[in-house]
Amino acid sequence: MYEGEYRAIIGTGGIGSGMLFELQGNHTLGREESRAAALNDCRDFCMLHIILHYVALLLGSDHDDASPFRTVPVGKVGKDQVGREMVRLMNESGMDTRYVITTAEAPTLFSVCFLYPDRTGCNITTSRSASSLLHPSEVHAVHRLCLEYGREGIALAAPEVPIESRLELLRMAGESGLRRFCTLTSAEMTDPLAPECIANTEFLAINRDEAAALCGMQYDHNYPGPFLAAMAHKAGELNPGLKLLVTVGEMGSWGWRDDLWEFVPAARVGVRSTAGAGDASMAGLIVATAAGLPFIRSEPATRKGLAELPVETAADFAAVLSSVSIVSADAINLDTDAGYILDHGYTLGLKFCPELKKLLN
């Protein structure tokens, strides 16, 4: 059971659904290519929903005001069946959806995922959707909650809503003392507001493509030094106190804080789909931080496998929850509960620190 110092998370980002095509052939889809693909019956969800599902589940949220931990999404859905279904599922997982607005001006956000035979993939997401219409003034509606929770609150700014609206939440949360988590897409790294978003957060979680767009250097796992140096320089320039997590695909992730890097290997599991893995990683970062775990070790360790050391940092648990995601065909592993994660970890030979054992038991 969760008994930490935080009492709520307030998050904004995309809410919606999608479909997944399994492509034939591993080569990257060409600009003018027509290729056969099988339509998969797995369930897809958008960023805010995925992240907050795991947070609500593991921190024991209920959608009524008596809940010891509240999970509050702020977003927009269309006046359609997809929107109604997403809100229903969010309510079922314990979220307080009173700040999810229904609009008739645009349909609910929808994405199409392309999955290659090697289980990597990409998404195409509607640009004109209900989520894209979320205005900063509508995000400002949770200002009272930010003031109420203050240092006992967490804020999350995720893509698929306008960057101006995310920045509004980050600013409000910062003024009220909430702990802030942020992520940005590759395309958004060149947005004039991206540096301000990064300056107004304590945690930034991005993948290697997004990191390359930010620092101008491609990641090479055999020679990571130049990339890490460029990334540290850029992050330090924008926000010296930042805690940065960069996921690097099947290899794992790198955590950076106070000019120190630590590599966290990925858990070795059978991959069914990578859809939602990055969002699960962010959720793991939030949950472990709420449980009181440090971001990375004070003396960064060197290891080849995740099980070589106990799961005792937020970056470690982010890797665990990411591996829980990729063993499911759905973007959210709907089989997940605390016991499932414990069993999953023990199957991988992982040892959980006391704080995580208490949370997951």
Describe this structure in words.
Helix content is 34%, strand content 22%. It is α/β, with parallel strands linked by helices. It has one domain: UDP-N-acetylmuramoyl-L-alanine:D-glutamate ligase (3-Layer(aba) Sandwich), CATH 3.40.1190. α1 packs parallel to α9 and α7 crosses α8. The radius of gyration is 19 Å and the shape is globular. The mean pLDDT is 93.
Uncertain spans? none
Percent helix, as a range, is 25-40%
Reported for the largest beta sheet, the result is:
9 strands, mixed
Radius of gyration: 19 Å
Q: Total domains, how many? A: 1
- Which oligomerization state do the chains in this entry correspond to? single chain
CATH topology-level fold name: UDP-N-acetylmuramoyl-L-alanine:D-glutamate ligase
Global shape = globular
CATH superfamily: Ribokinase
Determine the mean pLDDT.
93
Strand order of the largest sheet: 5-4-1-8-9-10-11-12-13
CATH first level: Alpha Beta
Q: What proportion of the residues form beta strands (DSSP E)?
A: 15-25%
Structural class: alpha/beta
The number of helices is 12
**First CA to last CA: what distance?**
7 Å
- Please count the beta strands (DSSP E, at least 2 residues each): 13
Please write the string of helix (H) and strand (E) elements.
EEEHEHEEEHHEHEHEHHEEEHHHH
- CATH hierarchy: architecture: 3-Layer(aba) Sandwich
Question: Which characteristics define this entry?
Answer:
UDP-N-acetylmuramoyl-L-alanine:D-glutamate ligase, nine-stranded mixed β-sheet, alpha/beta
